[in-house]
Amino acid sequence: MIKRLSLLCVLLSSLAHAQTVYTWVDADGVLHFSDTPGSGAKSITLADLDASAPAPHVESTQKMDAAQPSTTQASSAKETAVEPAQPSSSDQAPAELQLSMASPANDTTIRSNRGLIFIRMESNRKLEVGEQLQLILNGHRYGAPQTGLTWQLKNIDRGTHTLAVQAYRNGKIIASSSPISVHLHRTSIK
User: Fold this and answer.
1) Domain residue spans in the chain?
2) Which of 25, 68, 123, 172 has the highest local Cβ count within 10 Å?
3) DSSP secondary-structure letter at 28?
4) How far is Cα 20 from Cα 35, in angstroms, rounded to an integer?
5) CB distance 166 to 175 below 8 Å
6) Peptide linkage before 104 cis (omega within 30 of 0)
7) CA gap 168, 172 in Å, rounded
8) What is the percent of the chain where pLDDT is above 70?
C-alpha cells in the first residue's frame, strides 16, 4: 500500500507539468493515473501550475482636473494613490474588560426552597480567545471557569452569601466585579 501511494505521489508530481491526466480502475480495484490514455481511462484536466495570474488593474483614486493637459491626465491615470494601512480591529489590543453584576442586585433577598440562585453578568465587550470567567462564592471558586455570562447555582444553603466574578487570561486575573451580598431564604421542616 505504501509503495502504491509513493508511486502515486511521484507520478502526480511528474504529471504536474502535464495538462491532462488519465485515470482508471483495474480489475483488482486499484486506481491508476497516467499521462498516456489507456483503454477505459477517463481524462482529467489539471490547472497549469506554471501560469501566473494577470496583474490586477487598479484605477486611480486621484481626482482629475478638467484644466489639466491630456498628457498629465494620462500619466496621473496610471498612478495610484496608496493610503497608509490602518490597523485592523484584530491588530489592536482589546479594551480593558469591565464586569458588573446585572442580577441579583446587592443586598437582595432570594426565596428558593431548592436553594437556586441565578446570576447574570454584564461586560463592556465580548471575551477574547483565552479569557474565562470564574464565579466566586463566599470567597471560594465555584464550578469551572466558563465563557458565558450566566450561572445557575443549585442547592445553596440558606443564609447570606457573597458573589463576585473574576476574569482570567493565561492564569492571571484581568478584571473583577464588585462583590455583592445576597440573602437566601429556604423553608425548613421541623
Assistant:
1) 99-185
2) 123
3) T
4) 7
5) yes
6) yes
7) 5
8) 65
Measure the CA–CA gap between 94 and 98, rounded to whole angstroms.
12
Angstrom CA distances, 170 to 95, 111, 128, stand at: 17, 38, 11
Task: Give the class (CATH, top level) of 99-185.
Answer: mainly beta
Query: In this structure, is the dihedral angle defined by the CA atoms of residues 145, 148, 149 and 150, taken in order, positive or negative?
Result: negative
For residue 75 the three cell numbers come to: 500619466
- Whole-structure pTM over 0.70, yes or no? no
Angle at 126 between CA 123 and CA 127, to 5 degrees: 100
Kindly report the average pLDDT of the chain as a whole number: 78
pLDDT one-digit tens code per residue, 65-121: 555 554 444 444 444 455 555 555 555 777 899 999 999 999 999 999 999 999 999
What is the DSSP secondary structure assignment for residue 155, as one 8-state letter?
S
